[in-house]
């Protein structure tokens, strides 16, 4: 277990793959017994019945019968690549994480995905995209499990099953497969108006990226960085593509869905194969780690809010380059398991209630998706440094553990340095204050403003981008059966902007309602608009 099974870019080497199932020159059973014929079943005579005693036949078909594992409950369709992350060293004052050090190179595996469609769905649908990065650092695995949209639909993880049930195909007809155009989705996002901001981003050009190589990525939540002196800073992570941010127009997206449903995965794989390695800069917006965890009136624990870059510029801290395609989709892209709780010293979480729920969800779902608790032993998930844990047994255990005393301290397995000097290089949680409080279920009042930031986004768009947004709402809402849902959606739009509401209402042939909420006055943010981004000279 370790680096010898990987190429320098982190890709599985041929030997690692072959040593398990493809060693030697001759075809064998899984037990290594040589076969002389894999094309004919054992029968009682050339025209007779097939015999139950044909172990090779049964092993071959039984294995095939179980080739499929459950797809991810969300983000089922994805494409991935290996690469390297190089720290600039500029984050050293913020975080002691070794991989952020100057010129430190860390192998990474990045998986891009759509959220709602099944594994076989089309790539260029209107949806959020996942942007998940696994850093195999010298201090353990760090996962940055983000999206291409900087806000989320809900403020509390307890609603995650609900928003996904609303977004997935209707339970009766299993329609639609991968688009947000149906009654349950619009029912949910108009009744839970904290979803307005994310939905608006989905209806904008950001919902149909031109390429995975031309998408931004966002950690969404606020994280806490810790430096060598114990000083802490709150941050939001951003990935900025070197190729700029570009989208398809709706007609292109639709045609591409039909002509080439694999458009995005093909684009990524082809670019890497041709040596046009995509690159992103990792950056952080930084905020003082105050007791309130607010910045310029924005609640940093509310995952439906951004902090405009005009207020907190994104500071570059490293460069990601994707330079190798997976050699086996199943072993790598399908079996990779990301988790927001995979942290390294120097990076910690905050109390964002959405993030807190995610800390539970990923491990739980992966136990069922990957058939038990030992998926960290799969080559793609293994850290590149030695592991010495006390986890034992379980389904698909591949380690042969030594010793008799998997507990600490013990006096039988040669003792253990766990208690003495354990803090050297160990992950230590920031002893952040938990305010004395009574147990409550309600959210803070600062989570209540659902319309000011959608309005900020709308006002930041160019006329062309606004046209696309109005057309997207009109198209998607026109697919709803229930007039009451369309009317409620128009009310949500009226609370963002009267012009947007009027355009969509006209498209749907319904009256435009009056706003019921007055969003805060906001200044447009040029950084939110995609137009003005240029293609690189080469
Ligand atoms: C999968 C991002 C919220 C549960 C994923 C993946 C990404 C992602 C990128 C795909 C990982 C991969 O490529 O394998 C996000 C972001 C969120 C968010 C950015 C909000 C800011 C949540 C919440 C929950 C959740 C609130 C549950 C409470 C899951 C589950 C999977 C998943 C169960 C499937 C994991 C697997 O089977 O390996 N998420 N997610 N996510 N997410 Fe989230």
TrEMBL record:
Catalase core domain: residues covered: 28-416
Cofactor(s) the protein needs: heme
Signal peptide bounds: none
Catalytic activity field: 2 H2O2 = O2 + 2 H2O
Keyword list, A-Z: Heme, Hydrogen peroxide, Iron, Metal-binding, Oxidoreductase, Peroxidase
Family named by the database record: Belongs to the catalase family. HPII subfamily.
Function noted in UniProt: Decomposes hydrogen peroxide into water and oxygen; serves to protect cells from the toxic effects of hydrogen peroxide.
Protein name: Catalase
Residues represented out of the complete protein: 57 to 594 of 758
